[in-house]
Amino acid sequence: MRHKIAALQKLSRNLWWSWNTEAKELFKEISPLLWERVNHNPVELLHHISNDELMARLDYEFGEKLDNVTEQFEAYLTETDTWAAQNAPSLTEKAVAYFSAEFGIHESVRIYSGGLGVLSGDHIKSASDLGLNFVGITLFYKEGYFRQSLNQQGWQVEDYPLQYPESLPLEKVTNPDGTDLIISLDIAQSEVFAQAWYMNVGRAKLYLLGTNIPANEAHYRDICSRVYGGDQNMRINQEIVLGIGGVKLLKALGIDTAVYHMNEGHSAFLTVELLAKELESGKKLEEAKKSVKQQCVFTTHTPVPAGHDRFSRDMMHYSFDKYLQNNGIAFDEIMKLGTEDPSNLHGLFTMTVLALNLSRSANGVSKLHGEVSREMWQHIYGAESRKQVPIGHITNGIHIPSWGSGFTDSFWRQYTDSLDTLTSSPEAAAEVLAKVPDEQLWGLRYRLKRNLIDFIYRYLSNQLFHQHIYTSYMEADSSKSTKNPLSPDVLTIGFARRFATYKRAPLIFSDIERLTRIVNNPAMPVQIIFAGKAHPHDDAGKHYIQQIVEHARLPQFKGKIIFLENYNLGVAKRMISGVDVWLNNPIRPMEASGTSGQKTVLHGGLNFSVPDGWWPEAYNGENGWSIGSGEQFEHHEEQDRHDAEQLYDVLENQIIPTFYDRNLDNIPVKWLKKVRNAITTIGPVYNTHRMVKDYTMKYYLDE
Ligand SMILES: *Cc1c(COP(=O)(O)O)cnc(C)c1O
Predict the structure, then answer these.
(1) Which of 108, 168, 582, 661 has its CA 20 to 30 A from that of 18?
(2) Cα of 117 to ligand 1 centre, how many Å?
(3) Domain boundary among 38, 59, 78
(4) Which atom of ligand 1 is nearest the CA belonging to 571?
């Protein structure tokens, strides 16, 4: 029995369980209620269960299920005939080191804020599935990103529950003598120490650096408190720990690195540490730069100039003076690498420019974003035309197994062996779909929507209770004949993402009367679910949340438009699987890629989006809907008016009538045709297996 307990412990300490349905079910089965209470964290769950209970239960059928999962897990870890072994054998030996300021792997590990983190999490999982030797590098944030609640006025309130290493699947990195491995860094005039941890993500390892240790001066302990927390000074310190600390850690571990991948500019200081190492080995500056450039690749994610990290010369000087002196590098040589204007080294230092200057390849994250990036950085290369700017693109995707669900997985497994097969090619998807009757597909939609609604009522009762508006809200509904007005019969639209203002969350409220008619049409009603966090410093984003909450409380929208607090990976999974339509209305071209809409597809959801990010590539006229055709206006008001008009128009004239157009068996045949089209055209392309293969063949393998 002891070895079974050990197997369960081991399983809880590798995040592989988070994308394996049977492993998840196993933990949930121990105690469904406790599983909810510990936020789906198996390490925490096992802390609450005595060995006596485990021993007794393992004797019974539970033990058999565990054996089954353990077998799959061990087979996964020891598989040698992987995609990488066949297609990129050198990268099963030497490592790809992937640096990112955030990783969204599971809701119980709160070291992410939004899309960038979710992308990193999905990237490392696919890299593991495909068999690359892959290490992630990030920070361990003691407080993570905030937990969101709303006060009675609908204003966002942030709190920061602590994350304890012992409650997470974190392992300490140790020296051969068993002591903690500590990285030493020069920041300003101080020596700062970072402790190293790692987490197992399938076959891959994710290393995390944290500064909350007694050896540090008090104000340096907080560097890694919060994801994107604090001021500019905090930001530069975080980026020094991530970039420079990360390279030092890899060297200390003796990891033989084939390529350093900077996921966004936050980690670009890694190039400075690599440069210092090259100089130390005796190379001249120009030669050293060339050598660093040969080792690095860079992905940019920000299509707006103001969104890029920039530091003043003074701040750079303050933070790097000692470091550069110790390494014999002249300050202006570093400034030159990060300036947009080499004739003036007194301007701002831009992390993206540093990354572009010191990487052998650079890419945007969708076709459109590639174009925008080439235009935005043309001046850095002194290129005559945009076409000559050496920035390519690889469109983002999602890790399919992570975005499935118990019901969806078992649905597809009636027709094929796995979601992987379903998404291996459009032909494979079409072949599977040919076996699926409309009645079954429609049944899946009902099942998933019912799950979402059940979830929302449980979730809302908590949320409204602490907002002290529980009774007024819920009872207003019970005065009508239906107590729970949300209904799986009703067309359900979802909108959830960070509340950055360019994403224009409240756009659908532009014309309240029109929206009132749409939502309350007795023959063809609509319900809308919102969720999302605004960055703690972003008051404009918080006003957007407040606006939506106030609208949702209007009598005509009560119980039909809902705002769910504390958007995170768990809430996202519920929403993307339950809704019929996923709405996305950013200001084009400010959404570099976006990925949330890709998550809905295998659940039978359809996208309704401004042609921005990944959508113009994927949209074919039959697999969802477009809001306008990419018309761009100079003034925001004009743009909003135009896009809102398009949104209402398509909603009223296409989406709603198609959803409610039923055959004699009450099946929306035309709707399901679109669902089938989306599954065949989007599923096989917009996933991270395809994406990581593209990165490997195009950028990781050294030509
Ligand atoms: C997928 C996801 C995102 C990214 O959504 P976009 O629409 O691409 O901005 C952000 N947050 C969470 C929790 C997600 O799951």
Answers:
(1) 582
(2) 9
(3) 78
(4) 13
The reply to whether 361 and 469 lie within a common domain is: no
Clarify whether residues 430 and 509 are in a common domain: yes
Q: Which residues contact 320 (CB under 8 A, 6 or more apart)?
A: 272, 331, 334
SS (H, E, C) 64-119: HHHHHHHHHHHHHHHCCCCHHHHHCCHHHHCEEEEECCCCCCCCCCCCCCCHHHHH
Closest CA to ligand 1's atom 11: 114
Could you tell me the two tokens for 168? 């997470």
d(CA 593, CA 615): 8
Rg from Cα positions in the chain: 25
Same-domain status, 112 and 247: yes
pLDDT single digits (tens) 578-608 = 999 999 999 999 999 999 999 999 999 999 9
Angle of the 669-681 helix axis to the 438-466 helix axis, nearest 10: 90
Quick: pLDDT tens for 262-288: 999 999 999 999 999 999 999 999 999
Which domain CATH number covers 653?
3.40.50.2000
Pick from 59, 78, 97: which residue ends a domain?
78
Distance 596 CA to ligand 1 centre (A): 5
Q: Is residue 132 part of a domain?
A: yes
Residue 358 lies in a domain: yes
246 in the same domain as 215: yes
* Residue 48 and residue 129 in one domain: no
CA of 190 to the centre of ligand 1 (A): 38
- Per-residue pLDDT of 650-669, as tens digits, reads 999 999 999 999 999 999 99
- The answer to whether residues 43 and 164 belong to one domain is no
Pocket-forming residues, ligand 1, beta carbon under 6 Å: 114-115, 118, 497, 567-569, 572, 594-596
Q: Are residues 251 and 379 in the same domain?
A: yes
Which protein residue's CA is at the shortest distance from atom 7 of ligand 1? 596
pLDDT band at 249 (very low <50, low <70, confident <90, very high): very high
The residues with which 186 forms a beta bridge, in sequence order, are 191
**What pTM does this model have?**
0.97
State mean pLDDT over 418-440: 96
Residue nearest to atom 8 of ligand 1 (CA): 594
Best mutation site among 111, 118, 302 for ligand 1, i.e. most ligand atoms within 8 A of its Cβ? 118
Range of 333's domain? 83-396+692-700
If one counts the domains in the chain, the total is 3
Instruction: Judge if 65 and 134 occupy the same domain.
Output: no
- In a domain? residue 405: no
In a domain, 402, yes or no: no
Q: Report how far Cα 355 is from the mean position of its chain's Cα atoms.
A: 22
